[in-house]
Amino acid sequence: MCELLAMSANVPTDICFSFSGLMQRGGNTGPHRDGWGVTFYEGKGCRSFKDPMPSAQSPIAELVTKYPMKSEAVVCHIRQANSGAVNLENTHPFIRQMWGRNWTYAHNGQLKDFTTELPIQFHLPIGTTDSEHAFCWILDQLHITFGAKQPDYKTLFSFIANLASQIDTLGVANIIITDGEYLFAYCSNNLHWLTRRAPFGQASLIDAEVAVDFKKETTANDVVSVIATQPLTDDETWHKMSAGQWQLFCLGELVDGALIAGKLTANK
Amino acid sequence: MCELLAMSANVPTDICFSFSGLMQRGGNTGPHRDGWGVTFYEGKGCRSFKDPMPSAQSPIAELVTKYPMKSEAVVCHIRQANSGAVNLENTHPFIRQMWGRNWTYAHNGQLKDFTTELPIQFHLPIGTTDSEHAFCWILDQLHITFGAKQPDYKTLFSFIANLASQIDTLGVANIIITDGEYLFAYCSNNLHWLTRRAPFGQASLIDAEVAVDFKKETTANDVVSVIATQPLTDDETWHKMSAGQWQLFCLGELVDGALIAGKLTANK
Fold this sequence. Notes:
2 copies of one chain form a homodimer. Chain A has helices spanning 16-24, 59-66, 114-117, 130-146, 153-168; strands at 3-13, 36-42, 45-51, 71-78, 94-98, 101-111, 171-178, 182-186, 192-196, 202-204, 211-213, 224-228, 239-240, 245-250, 253-254, 262-263. Chain A is an alpha+beta fold. The first copy, chain A, has a single domain (3-263), classed as Glutamine Phosphoribosylpyrophosphate, subunit 1, domain 1 (4-Layer Sandwich). The A-B interface holds A 42-52, 59-60, 63, 67, 87-91, 95-97, 99-102, 121-127, 148 and B 42-52, 59-60, 63, 67, 87-91, 95-97, 99-102, 121-127, 148.
């Protein structure tokens, strides 16, 4: 299995604190030694850092931990390989373009029979993971259903939620997907989130001797949501998502919480 | 204008030496202050490092200079913006997927009337540069002409050369494009290349007080070609490409030099 970490914020925010906790799980406090990657959005542009090396020993991870890249949306992944060899083409997150946006995808879990159950016509995978295959299948389904024009966000993410629940029937599929503006999280069996806003307090990492006082790092209007496989701090309240539940975030906030985020019938 | 640097090699080779020379031109020995990027291939996988900051002052560029990432194909670009704002989405190289491969594109030059002369249906640009638009147009033309199946490399790169010469009629278009296996270079007005092989000698950078003795860094079978806007060393013989000329490299070698690489009629 792997671990996921994502962030949605209303102002460009660095993720150094959470990232430094997660990276310890890549070969140090956790067993996820088979590579890691992170994608930072700045507007519609994004940049990724990836390494098939364990994150706890990666000079690139060290740079990302220390160099505060400010972003409104971030997706991180540390890998414990179960489908596909340990190499760069199988390292998450996966990024592809659709409708003039960069789409980023990361997956924690394992899928059976994905090559037959999720047939692909247009968006051919580069590597051999179940994860990239499922992402390509999602893009194919979006292309087939909506063509060249992106639908409104409610239609789009309800549709993606339906696709995620179909993928989830093949095994375990905790999924993060974002276009840099909206950030979608689907829980198969293991996903937590919290939103930080004023009044800000202190937080302490579980995986490293690091604490931060967000009061010193933020303004009163900042809103930042963090989504992670397992809580990263031991002195904040994390919401545990339930099987089949999905949430949509935009600019740090849950989107239309009562209206469109909710529970799908888990077809498991 | 911008500067390009690319490498094709028959063994995974680091580009630290050439890269450290090029990075000096990004705000130090050259005026290309509007960002930089580099893509390294490892097999079919690739990773990019990008920064809208000047390369001579970028902590990420410093990491890439010092951390020897070994690769068979590399594309670098430093930018002096003339089309599109200075931001991440306008920073080269551009990467998109087709036929189960990562395709990387970088451009030095400037195009007029590209939105009308290079109409796009499928591969929509994310940023606002002439360069990304032309890349999307190339992918559209490949998709329209060859569909879901990649043609043989001779057909493919002859076709791409024809597209490059059409782009070149709109202004200046020195182009590098690669799928990590083949590396294609089109010269509009400014592109040089050399191939390093045994017996290896010493080389000295023009832009920094750095010399390297390749005998100590290589084996007798290594073959490495480097393509650059301007020669990076002052004690090696660089081949200057002529207007409308293109070259294809694979595993460090010129491909079928006499057979398919050659001069197109420049429609300028």
